[in-house]
Specification:
single chain; alpha/beta; Rossmann fold; 3 domains
Length: about 350
């Protein structure tokens, strides 16, 4: 990983400061893969992955065993804790990563509390320098789905984990997979909402839908078959069909190409709408000027769609440089008062 997104930088700040951090995000957004990649990149790190949802109290605290004189019991040290202590003794940095935290029942969550904050149980301790990291899906998207109790929630620094389209597409571009590279181009052209789209309907959530993980799985299947006929099995019918249509036409340029002036806005209505929407969705302070220049050039094609995009950009807090575009839109007959009223309905 040569560059870090803002959320990855925050994650590393938590790790560097030895602050317990919880990554909360939708399934398939590379939470676990990111931790594994960061540990590998850092070097000399022992990463101990504990599937929290698969534990019971004894695998956290240890199994009570009688002493030699049978006068008391003492817990054994779990294998994962022993491995962390051995790695620390060998001079390695140690990270404990607890995955699937919102699938942990209360009877197991209780014993975890001391490990997270104090790095100990009644019978053993972890190194004070051991980094404590966890990942979880929101309870309504998790298997079982337990909301964190206050005592558990208060022990974590909570980091909302989003699907990073820029990071994922850069990764996909570097893979030895023609389909993955096509999907990366598709996401850049169509907008980041096509990378991750969790259905709102609970029944649809039980089927196939697009996420970084499911696109990756679907690409592997497509590469094996030599075509995208089975892509819907991984990402769902809508995403697969849209990708196939885009792939057959491929006339929707990426937002980077549009802003750089390498390509012009397409004139086909659906392609124009997609490009204008993607430009508005990905606007930042750094690319605002180039975004507005592209949108201004598109007024002659469809002033109404451009006006919608400009209104969205303004509502996102990007006001600088809008006046010349607004003036051109008004000259093209756009009534911003009516447009704003319609958007509010």
């Amino acid at each position: 990983m040569t560059t870090q997104s803002a959320q990855t930088s925050l994650l590393m700040a938590c790790i560097d400061s030895n602050t317990p951090v919880l990554l909360m995000g939708a399934p398939g957004t590379a939470k676990t893969a990111t931790i594994e990649a960061l540990a590998a990149e850092r070097g000399n790190v022992h990463l101990e992955v504990v599937i929290a949802s698969a534990q019971d109290p004894t695998t956290i605290l240890g199994i009570p065993m009688p002493s030699a004189d049978r006068k008391y019991t003492e817990g054994t040290i779990p294998g994962w804790a022993r491995r962390i202590n051995e790695a620390h003794a060998a001079g390695k940095e140690t990270w404990l990563f607890m995955d699937e935290l919102t699938s942990v029942p209360p009877i197991v969550a209780g014993p975890m509390l001391g490990v997270i904050q104090s790095r100990r149980s009644d019978s053993w301790t972890l190194p004070g320098s051991c980094r404590i990291i966890a990942a979880a899906n929101p309870p309504d998207l998790a298997v079982g789905g337990y909301a964190l109790q206050p005592a558990m929630a208060n022990r974590w620094t909570h980091l909302k984990w989003d699907a990073d389209a820029d990071a994922w597409t850069a990764w996909a571009d570097a893979q030895d997979s023609p389909t993955l590279r096509d999907i990366a181009e598709f996401v850049r052209a169509m907008g980041p909402e096509w990378l991750l789209n969790v259905p709102t309907d609970k029944h649809q959530r039980s089927g196939a839908w697009p996420s970084p993980r499911s696109w990756t799985n679907g690409a592997r299947l497509a590469d094996t078959l030599g075509n995208t006929s089975a892509l819907a099995l991984a990402v769902g019918e809508t995403a697969a069909r849209t990708f196939d249509v885009w792939l057959s036409k491929r006339d929707i340029p990426s937002v980077d190409e549009l802003r750089a002036g390498a390509k012009e806005l397409p004139t086909r209505p659906d392609a124009f709408r997609t490009s204008v929407t993607a430009l508005a969705d990905t606007v930042t302070d750094a690319n605002l000027d180039s975004t507005l220049a592209v949108l201004r050039a598109g007024i002659v094609t469809d002033a109404g769609l451009v006006a919608d995009a400009v209104l969205r950009i303004a509502r996102m807090g990007h006001a600088r440089g809008l006046q010349p575009v607004v003036a051109d839109l008004k000259a093209a007959g756009i009534d911003f008062g009516k447009l704003a009223a319609n958007a509010a309905e």
